[in-house]
Prior knowledge:
Chain B: Belongs to the RGS7BP/RGS9BP family. The complex is a heterodimer. By secondary structure, chain A is mainly alpha-helical.
Amino acid sequence: MQDPKSGVKSQTQRLVITTIPHAITGEDIVAWIVNRFKIDATEARAMGTMMVAFGYIYPLQDHKRLILKPDTSLYRFQTPYFWPAQQWPVEDTDYAIYLAKRNIRKKGMLELYEQEQYNSLYKWMNHKWDFIVMQAKEQYRAGKERKKPDRVVFDCQERAYWVVHRPPVRNIWTEYRPYGQFKPRVKSSVSIGAIVKYATTYKEHDPLLHSCLPSNPWLTDDLVLIKHLIKVECWTFSFGELLMDPRGRADFRLFLKKEFSGENLAFWEACEDLKWGAAETMKEKAQQIYKTFLARGAPRWINIDGKTMDITVKGLAHPHCYVLDAAQTHIYMLMKKDSYGRYLKSPVFKETQRKAIAPEPHRFTRRPSLSPIILRQQEEEQKAKLAASGPVDITQLCRFTAPVPHLAVYTGICEAQSTASPGLMTLPNSAACPSPISVAIDSTPASERRFDGNGGPSSSHFPSIAEASVSEEENQTPALKSRMTLSLSRLLRRGCNGPSVFASLSPKCAVVSGGGKVQPLGVEPLAQPQPRRIANFFQIKVDIPPECRIYPIDSEDEEDDSPNAARGGVKEIICPWETVTKKDGAG
Amino acid sequence: MPLCNNKVADDGTSAQPLQEGKALVDSLIKVVACYRHLASCVGGCTDNSSLRRDLQQTRERAQTLALSCRNHLTARLRDKTLAEAERKETELLWVAFSSCLELLHADMCKVFTMVKHFSLANNSAMVQTGIQGGTTEVAARALSLPDLQGAGDGSQTSSMEGQEQSQLEQEIAQVDRTLEDMELKVNVLRWSVEALGPQYADPVSTDSASLALLSIDEEAAQGFCRRSQMFAVMMLCGVAIFAMVLSVCVVFLV
């Protein structure tokens, strides 16, 4: 690059009275890179900027911005001593010496960030400080021995080196801010003051800062809607707190009703709904609000001043979701200044305070909360129960309709089965609670019964899964829907082992709809005593068809001897990640 | 030869060694500073055999100084009869000495690596850094000699370079060992040492010329100059008005 003939054209930098050679312009650099590497200008520019950013070339003007400007701005090569190529550690001692040197040269020349760093270095390198100062002086004096231009060059080199390795903090931000907009800056003392105030006020009340209440949303899923004393105390902190808490808002509403000024809160809530609600109904909502609250002679007329009313009415000509903002703020302030104070002193609030209970701290047990799947099942159960309040269907027959609480999900094991089938390994991590798998499995007796009743498959013998599946495929073409549940049961019945189940499951999933032949992979007669774990694992995630009930463990003894459980092959296996109704062959 | 502040009257044995130690450390610091200046030129366009020679000589000097410094300080710190205040001062010197040695070690390693890449034989590979002058003055300062003897031989053969490199390697290893020894022999708790000097070093001299050159790019504090100028102008005006008033009065009276 330095080649006088084919390299970058070298120029001289002219300072006041001296000239320093070996300066190169940005555009020359870019042109040279384009030529040399046969790339286009933007890429060359990027490459050049990288070189500058790493510190191989440093700019002579505007030295803090390490970019390559493709114009006549000058650059120079950095001396190898300061190259980053060898990856020598950048020592803080050196930095301290450098800063001290600059300070020696001219007092107060350090910039703010440099000043800060200097001070912090002074603090933690205090023991070396005499040395640092002395070394700085000596280096400065030694530098004086050199010729003036060389001194300048050396200073530039060192400065460039430190701009690379200790970049000025603020400048980087201004450089990379895309829109050039400066966010309004808050003094950290102000923001910290706000944090401190929040922490002191909410010390006892914030679920994160304090030990948890029973309904700590950070920790549990269940929502306990008891009015806790602590929560009630929160309402006294600010009006916003009161409104945010739904119980608080309800209480406040009660109070306002007594005072006959409930329309304010209703208006405020309507505005909130307008702001955060669905956008398509926004116009209608706005009109509705106007008719109800703002229009002259409206049923729930709110009292806002004329100016705000004017603005609002004008805005309503072209409504958007924030059109009622001014009025809402006005009403909010009104409530805050007027009603809130009275509320806090009111008998309603006092009653609430009296009734609020002091919560006990949460005693964590190892039981997790109900999983969404179980919850959904329960919902469906409820729905079905309501719907099918007619004759008892055998499918609905369920001796134990109460949902089993505390079901651990995804344990993937069936401890229930292990007792039933001799030779089955006792599965590890059998939780104390019955796994839903077992519970789910226990649902199969019902379906079993059903399908047995329907004259299900004739096979009464349970060969190994491999043989069974082979034989099954050849024999049967069952109807699809019944297949699902049937295969469920089959799946559970089999003393299937892990690998072959996996192997067989995946291809079989593909033919859920087809009902065609599926070759199970890795078919070999496998010993029965294999954990049903995997099967159960798969079982768990399936959306259990609504007819199946969740049974507790007891009904398991109705199941047949499961050791030879592979009664017939399973043609369609419901992949756990598929819902029952999906029929396409997505494996 | 160490720069010693030889007092004419010997005021106690304790002051002398302390001063001696301080002088030793000061000179070591000076030499290391010069070495750094020299090292920054390696690989640049002024890199030539004289620079290398300067480097070598400076290095040797630094090492001899370091050795004598170490002996001196170790002896003092091992001396159990040392007074507390003096022990503190000696510890300060010790910390300064070890940091200095670390700096020297780092510089030597850097020079070693650079010399490997930038061989003198291949002059065109040197980076054009804009440095024009030589560094003989710096070396002279380091060696405390008024001037150096001649330019030495013109070019170095590669064998000489290799020899130099191996020598440099040895020297680096030696400094390494010295540092290790220091840590083992004398137990100075660095964090217990407190600096006595000021946080900000006083300006050595107002070097306005090079300052001006550099500050062309940097924004100088213009406001202050203007303010002072304005003030001067106003003063002048005030004086002029006063003079006019006086003359008018004189004319009037007369």
